[in-house]
Design a protein that fits this description.
The complex is a heterotetramer, with two copies of chain A and two copies of chain B. By secondary structure, chain A is of the alpha/beta class. Chain A is built from twelve helices and nine strands. Chain A has one domain: Aldolase class I (TIM Barrel), CATH 3.20.20. In chain A, strand 1 (about 20-25), helix 2 (about 30-40) and strand 2 (about 45-50) form a beta-alpha-beta unit. The radius of gyration of chain A is 16 Å and the shape is globular. Chain B has two domains: about 15-55 and about 95-210, Rossmann fold (3-Layer(aba) Sandwich); about 60-95 and about 215-390, Rossmann fold (3-Layer(aba) Sandwich), CATH 3.40.50. In chain B, helix 9 packs across helix 10. Classes of the chains: A alpha/beta, B alpha/beta. The structure holds pyridoxal-5'-phosphate (2 copies). One pyridoxal-5'-phosphate binds near residues 120, 122, 238, 242 and 349 of chain C. The site of one pyridoxal-5'-phosphate has 21 residues of chain C, from helix 5, strand 9, helix 10 and helix 14.
Chain lengths: ~260, ~400, ~400, ~260
């Protein structure tokens, strides 16, 4: 079992619902301070987005963040260098599209991530069917591969994905790309479907934009991922202190 | 007992053509891809579906399109050129073949809506057309830049009852329209089919679109046979995503014909690209050293795509087909030459294939060789642009 | 032993259809008209010529064009409408049928050059196309106003290697272009054929053009027979000069089908005109009390002609066909309706016929009646204009 | 024999080569003074153009004149009224397109012309084949129907046209519409073809723009028609006195 999963299971054992904020690396020059602030604010792990030109699974906010980061010259290498110089104290989970790893070669990519202290990877366009090579490359490292499940996922796939995912299972709250909060989500049903087949920690993301939603989702899941809502404040000029406040608000809502 | 390899057969169960293809999509879309695959497999072996598909193509879309022997062009360049006239198909290009198939499949799956991406608007207009005929709701995603460059095609789609959404992300062109269509599809898979416009995207699209386009090659083979040139020496087609090329190659993949795909030099995914993953597939892509996808640049909007269909990547890797790049200048000359000599104004896309013949006649194409040219579309959509360019030079 | 009259047969030796037709041209042109007549008579009974004409139409121009059953439109209006898809012919309308015939005849007569008139540019583009294919020199006369309104079509003709001459006399539109082409023809009859664009002008043009267009009706009759509706209740076509109407009527003139020609209300030579002599023929014309020819006004440039072919004048006088006028507003609605319901954007000209069906379904056309609609051309040439009009209203 | 032909044959007998200038009725308000001036200048007959909207046989100058005349409200009736008030002293020959007569009815038209003193009619788009009704209508009047022949006319047609024409036979100098003077004409051959079959007076027109050309054509024909060159000067503001000078210049050239 990868260290990420060991940590997250322990967290659950301790009765804590995980809070995992998402940051786009390089979207602002001080992005890593924001990450550190989030940890102060009560994050249990952080998702580090590595910008890709064609973020098929992301809504407008994260697209904009990625464009800014790319325009600023951010690369997988630059992100890894920055991360390896920082000591953030919580597990780091990389989130990006498969082409960045594919292009560099999987062994080289996992080496880079490992060297930067990354403990998990979310690759939303990497289906379980196509993931064998990647998982083989990760096998030699401590990087957990985290799979998503969605409201459209079928029973048979829930079983396979829950069995394959490492660290936690990422449950999409709704049929949407990141940053869309409209309409009621199916998060509870999705989480239940995972639970029916596996005891892996199950976190809810995609569509959690308010502390209230985080509070509600915390009632039936093991963790909460908040992305676009936070990224948007940062794009709009939030300081690391603002980010700390944002995260601690979510922290409190979850813990209530 | 060495069997020669069979080209352009079914991909592997996971949708691979050699090292390429597959499915690289958000989990949310996987059930839709699987549903589509099984619906297609089912339909494609159902005589009633095949019959309807063929009937709509013949009674609505104008198939079979003729083969025109290009007499004056052939004489001038010393090779025997036959043009497959997809420019005569309804809406002006081969795109209609695919959308007729996919909209019939949409109805068969019980879905009531289609979405599509479009660059210059050809696939968008074709989709809007086929959707109108069946009374399906239709939304087309188009890069904002393209909606401005191709405002008339936006209006055409609207006339046909479709909604056109201008995509403001990224480079605001075709690849961003694909991204946006995928994002939209995630939200509405239950009642909506994504009508992809070329042999790209996740399995089963590259295979399905090739199958729907293979009627081009099947007809051409049959027509040439009746003229006594069953197997041409060369079969040449332009390649954006690669659907018209795949369609015509399909009729000749297991013959002795040389297969040549002509990409825009500014978007030559095979010549200048490298393997990568985009839009649901592993294929050849134009990307920078970081693995960020680059924008393609071509005089023809329809070839402005930074990738190529995975089956083409495989045909290139296996050596069965060759892919070459042609620059904008040669394309302009080719468009003018074909117009003047044959009375056919080709689409700028198709003019890439014409230009290659002009360049290679007597070189890579031996004198007197027979060449089957896929004239994928008509140039009417391009004359305003060509006029501006040529006037700018006077 | 009363024989029923035979409609759409050969005109009299002097080219009369009843009281209409004939030859009203400068003496300088008479020998050319006579030469053309005998060349046509000879060619039209020469199996080799017929074979070549048919082959070029099928291998170059995309014939036969399909018949499309308009399912959603039929349901909405309660009549059974079949569309003959001339919009799918090369260059986008029925005009190609005629120019293929005339250019082949030009070569047969040993002439090396053609001239033509054009209004919106459809016949000009078609002539330039057919001339390019045969390597004939081509000059197209176009009213100066039209060259401005249809600048893209001017460029198309130039791309095809033709010279376009802007006519600055009179109203600077189609009828002046005809005058100018006639004037030009006077100066160069020995090596030049005047490729007239409709069933008008001096004998043998009205007859010859009808014969070259009759392939529309012959095909349609055959196609409908194979579908079990051999004789439709109504055959309807728009009428400018009347060539597409004559072409489709020719297949049904001696059946029980009602024949309906739809003119633009602002240029309805039968409804609002009177007998007169213009452009080499005696026919129905729009003229003032003085006998000066008036300008036709229509949203569709292709119907902006103040006259009608003489055979139509005769069909009207004899009661065999009816002619009705449709106004611009109804045409716009018809264009939108057909686009949305069937995925076919008709030419504004053709939309006149569509509008008439919409207006008369359940009235002059009984519910459930079968209607053969000649969809003479595609609307791509018109979308910019329609867009401007509709935007102006928002 | 119509009086026009009697007069023109007598003119030929007298050794005079006829000079027939053309005027567009109504092109200028003083057009009839121009006609009178031409008679002073030595015209033996005059052609009176009646404006038609679609002058298929005319070049740009006469087209322009017709447009002006129409814009000024000129009609067949108004021309006839003006002519019947004038006493010009030479034969008047109407020239226009068939539709104006067809539209009014042929009997009414010939009546109008006769009443105005018109003695001949040139209708360039009325072929001999279509002329029967017209000639029947003229039969009851003294209006001569003048046919044109052209370089393209065939031997068989020369014979028929020369036999049918009344007054004179109008020989086109070249394959052209009015007003084009470029290139060498075939006038002499055309005249010879008429003469080979008939002794009707044969006049040369279409393409005679200079006194020099008139002089040359006078050597082999019975008369000269000059149209566009004269009409152009009038459109450009020539006075009746200028017209008289113009005509007398041609007169002298012919008579030399
Ligand atoms: C006429 C024409 N040809 C070719 C293409 C390129 O597409 P593909 O490579 O899928 O045939 C397009 C795309 O719009 C097109 O319009
Ligand atoms: C599409 C179309 N239909 C009809 C016409 C009218 O011509 P006709 O009455 O000779 O068919 C035109 C003329 O340009 C045309 O383009």
């Amino acid at each position: 079992m990868k260290s990420l999963e060991v940590a997250l299971r322990a967290l659950r054992e301790s009765g804590t619902t995980a809070l995992v904020p998402y940051f786009m690396a390089g979207a602002t020059p001080d992005w890593i301070q924001h990450v550190a602030a989030a940890v102060h604010g009560g994050a249990n792990a952080v998702e580090i987005g590595i910008p890709f030109s064609d973020p098929m699974m992301d809504g407008p906010v994260i697209q904009r963040a990625a464009e800014r980061a790319l325009a600023a010259g951010t690369t997988l290498e630059s992100v890894c260098t920055e991360l390896s110089g920082a000591d953030l104290g919580v597990p780091l989970i990389a989130m990006t599209y498969y082409n960045l790893f594919h292009h560099r070669g999987l062994v080289r990519s996992t080496g880079l991530l490992s060297g930067a202290g990354v403990r998990g990877a979310i690759v939303p366009d990497l289906t379980i069917e196509e993931s064998q090579e990647w998982r083989e490359a990760c096998a030699a490292t401590d990087i957990a591969t985290i799979f998503l499940v969605a409201p459209s996922t079928t029973a048979e796939r829930f079983a396979r994905l829950a069995a394959a995912t490492e660290g936690f299972c990422y449950a999409s709250a709704r049929m949407a790309v990141t940053g869309r909060a409209e309409g009621g989500g199916d998060a509870q049903a999705v989480v239940a479907s995972v639970r029916a087949t596996s005891d892996v920690p199950t976190y809810v993301g995609i569509g959690i934009t308010t502390a209230r939603q985080a509070h509600d989702a915390a009632r039936f899941s093991d963790g909460i991922i908040v992305g676009s809502a936070l990224v948007e404040t940062i794009l709009n000029g939030a300081t690391p202190a603002d980010t700390e406040e944002f995260v601690s608000k979510f922290r409190h809502a979850i813990d209530q | 007992m060495n069997q020669p390899p069979l080209y352009m057969d079914r991909p592997s169960p996971a949708g691979h053509f050699g090292d390429f293809g597959g499915r690289f999509v958000p989990e949310a879309l996987m059930p839709a891809c699987l549903e589509l695959e099984s619906a297609f497999v089912d339909a494609w072996s159902d005589p009633a579906f095949l019959e309807e598909y063929r009937t709509v193509l013949s009674e609505f879309a104008g198939r079979p399109t003729p083969i025109t022997y290009l007499g004056r062009f052939s004489k001038q360049f010393g090779v025997e050129v036959y043009a497959k006239r997809e420019d005569l198909a309804h809406t002006g290009s081969h795109k209609i073949n695919n959308v007729v198939g996919q909209t019939l499949l949409t109805r068969r799956m019980g879905k009531t809506r289609v979405i599509a991406e479009t660059g210059a608007g050809q696939h968008g207009v074709a989709t809007a057309t086929a959707a109108a005929r069946l009374g399906l709701e239709c939304t087309v995603f188009m890069g904002e830049l393209d909606t401005q460059r191709q405002a008339l095609n936006v209006f055409r789609m609207e006339l046909l009852g479709s909604r056109v959404v201008a995509v403001t992300s990224g480079s605001r062109t075709l690849k961003d329209a694909v991204n946006e269509a995928m994002r939209e599809w995630v939200t509405c898979v239950s009642d909506t089919h994504y009508c992809l416009g070329s042999v790209m995207g996740p399995h089963p699209f590259p295979w399905m679109v090739r199958e729907f386009q293979s009627i081009i090659g099947v007809e051409a083979h049959d027509q040439l046979t009746r003229r006594g040139v069953a197997t041409p020496d060369v079969v040449v087609a332009c390649v954006g995503g690669g659907s018209n090329a795949a369609g015509i190659f399909a009729g000749f993949a297991n013959t002795s014909a040389r297969l040549v795909g002509v990409e825009a030099a500014g978007g030559a995914a095979v010549t200048n690209g490298s393997p990568g993953v985009l839009h649901g597939m592993r294929s050849m892509l134009i990307q920078d050293e970081q693995g960020q996808i680059e924008e393609a640049h071509s005089i023809s909007a329809g070839l402005d795509y930074p990738g190529i269909g995975p089956e083409h990547a495989h045909l290139a890797a296996s050596g069965r087909a060759e892919y070459v790049g042609i620059g904008d200048e040669d394309v302009l000359v080719a468009l003018q030459t074909l117009s003047e000599l044959e009375g056919i104004i080709p689409a700028l896309e198709s003019a890439h294939a014409v230009a290659w013949i002009m360049q290679e006649a007597g070189r890579a194409i031996p004198r007197g060789a027979s060449v089957l040219l896929n004239l994928s579309g008509r140039g009417d959509k391009d004359v305003a642009q060509v006029r501006e360019i040529l006037r700018g030079r006077q």
